[in-house]
């Protein structure tokens, strides 16, 4: 059954609105080397210029740019989603500004229709990234599945730290599995993300030693949360987390990063600046509602 968390939704909406509307100013003042941009290799020159401008970058010489190819997207996603869904062009792009470790990962999106900011941030936490502010965009509506590849590539280029190839694959798989769960009308986006996070917490706490123990853990957790998983969904989750369980992943760090992200968003929402943004959003929707009322009252 879906559970609607109105307060959390408003907080995240406010935070997203704040990041999106202030991104150009932040980037214009940034020092080269503190941030990196990934661009889909198949963007036209006009699209590239438009996206850089959207990110607040007036001169591409001021920032390190990493290009992501469609071949790379297929390499990391080909085992998890149909090739047609990945497409034949690399278009998703991102601006990544690294923060101190253990400060959380905030991801906002524009024209990304399938993957949400939380899905990106949770997969990146699994990959070992623990502090970043990320903006993902495209020249027109796209699924956004290829953006994660570029973000991890940019992280490696900026920090010099290598992410294990199997971990990259697993992070992409996690992103896709979460998105698939979110498509279930009885689960939805928020509950899918929350469920995935709670599985990670349980794995850290209980340290399952076999596939069957992991399966029982997921079944029990789903029951506690009121989530009715199909056999196919359960098998997908067991396969994913069994793979993750056998990789060298620091689950304590992953869960700390997820908690830090929640705290970051919550702290902003409770700040004077955050309250101002929330008021702006409420006033905006109130004005839209008033306009609709005026239209219908005049008919």
Q: In percent, how helical is the residue content?
A: 55-70%
**Mean pLDDT level:** 81
Number of helices in the DSSP assignment = 12
Give the distance, in angstroms, between the N- and C-terminal Cα atoms: 39 Å
Q: Which percent range describes the beta-strand content?
A: 5-15%
Tally the beta strands: 5
Rg (C-alpha, Å): 20 Å
How does the major sheet shape up? Answer: 5 strands, mixed
Q: Based on CA inertia axes, which overall geometry fits?
A: globular
Task: List low-confidence stretches.
Answer: 1-33, 273-278
Spatial order of the strands in the main sheet? 2-1-3-5-4
The structure class reads: alpha/beta
Give a quick set of tags describing it.
299 residues, globular, 12 helices, single chain, disordered N terminus, 5-stranded mixed beta sheet
Description:
This protein has helices spanning 6-28, 45-54, 70-77, 83-86, 117-126, 147-159, 165-183, 188-206, 211-225, 231-245, 251-270, 272-297; strands at residues 35-40, 64-68, 93-98, 104-109, 131-137. The longest helix is centred in the last third of the chain and has 26 residues, at 272-297. Residues 1-33 and 273-278 have low confidence and may be disordered. It is globular, with a radius of gyration of 20 Å. With 299 residues, it is of the alpha/beta class. It has a 5-stranded mixed β-sheet with strand order 2-1-3-5-4, sandwiched between helices. The chain contains 12 helices and 5 strands. The relative contact order is 0.13.
């Amino acid at each position: 059954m879906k559970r609607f968390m109105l307060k959390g939704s408003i907080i995240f909406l406010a935070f997203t609105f704040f990041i999106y509307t202030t991104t150009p100013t932040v980037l214009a003042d940034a020092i080269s080397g503190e941030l990196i941009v990934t661009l889909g290799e198949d963007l036209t020159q006009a699209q590239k210029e438009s996206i850089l401008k959207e990110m607040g970058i007036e001169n591409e010489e001021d920032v390190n740019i990493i290009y992501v190819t469609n071949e790379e997207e297929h390499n990391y996603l080909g085992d998890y989603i149909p090739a047609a869904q990945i497409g034949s062009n690399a278009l998703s792009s991102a601006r990544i500004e690294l923060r101190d470790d253990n400060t959380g990962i905030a991801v906002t999106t524009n024209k990304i229709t399938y993957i949400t900011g939380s899905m990106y941030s949770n997969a990146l936490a699994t990959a070992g990234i623990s502090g970043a502010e990320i903006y993902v965009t495209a020249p027109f509506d796209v699924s956004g599945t290829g953006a994660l590849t570029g973000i991890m590539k940019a992280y490696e280029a900026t920090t010099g730290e290598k992410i294990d190839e199997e971990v990259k694959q697993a992070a992409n798989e996690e992103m896709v599995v979460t998105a698939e769960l979110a498509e279930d009308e009885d689960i939805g986006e928020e509950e899918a993300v929350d469920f995935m996070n709670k599985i990670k917490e349980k794995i850290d706490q209980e340290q399952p030693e076999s596939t069957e123990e992991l399966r029982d853990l997921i079944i029990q957790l789903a029951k506690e949360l009121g989530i009715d998983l199909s056999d196919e969904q359960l098998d997908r989750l067991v396969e994913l987390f069994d793979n993750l369980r056998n990789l060298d992943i620091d689950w304590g760090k992953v869960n700390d990063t997820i908690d830090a992200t929640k705290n970051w968003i919550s702290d902003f929402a409770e700040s004077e600046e955050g309250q101002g943004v929330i008021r702006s959003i409420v006033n905006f929707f109130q004005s839209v509602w008033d306009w609709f009322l005026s239209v219908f009252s005049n008919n």
